[in-house]
Amino acid sequence: MPPGRIAAVLAATALLTGGCAAATAATPSAAPSTPQAPRCHQPRPAALPHAWGSLSQTDSGAYCLPVGKQIDIFLSAPGGSPAQSARWGQIRTSDPQVLAPTSTGVLTAPLGVTPGIFVGRAPGTAELTSATTTGKPWTVTVVVR
After folding, report:
1. Other CB atoms closer than 10 Å to residue 9's CB: what's the count?
2. Over the stretch 90-139, which tens digit does the pLDDT of each residue have?
3. Any domain includes 123
4. Rounded distance, CA 67 to CA 143, Å?
5. What is the CATH number of the domain that holds 108?
6. Alpha-carbon gap, residue 55 to 77, rounded angstroms
7. Domain of 7, in residue numbers
8. Is residue 38 part of a domain?
9. Are residues 59 and 108 in the same domain?
10. What mean pLDDT do residues 51-78 have?
11. Spatial separation of the C-alpha atoms in residues 59 and 46, rounded to whole Å
């Protein structure tokens, strides 16, 4: 295409789009940098129906979860103690827009087990955290794709 024709096409496009296309074509810019998601692993098979995978207090690192899928978490009291003083606290997500808590409506956990069910809402990375009343932390990273 001759250079004069290219300029005419760009000018017409700029008029139709309010100048955005011409500005983009005239001034190339670097793509915005996005943080690289950590390498993730498949969680163990799900304990609950309709879940993608399952995690427990023995898991650490990063786990993959497709958008729209659920992951279930069961944190057992240290040493199998059902005592309130040794149980894990509520499991929290660092970004509910990426990984949101959800409920089956029928989950009753055994004594000494803290359950959590989360669904991948949008691509991104979120941390799941909990701690025992004695201060022992638990953290995993979930990469939603």
Report:
1. 13
2. 999 999 999 999 986 666 888 889 999 999 999 999 999 999 988 999 99
3. yes
4. 10
5. 2.60.40.2020
6. 14
7. 1-28
8. no
9. yes
10. 95
11. 14
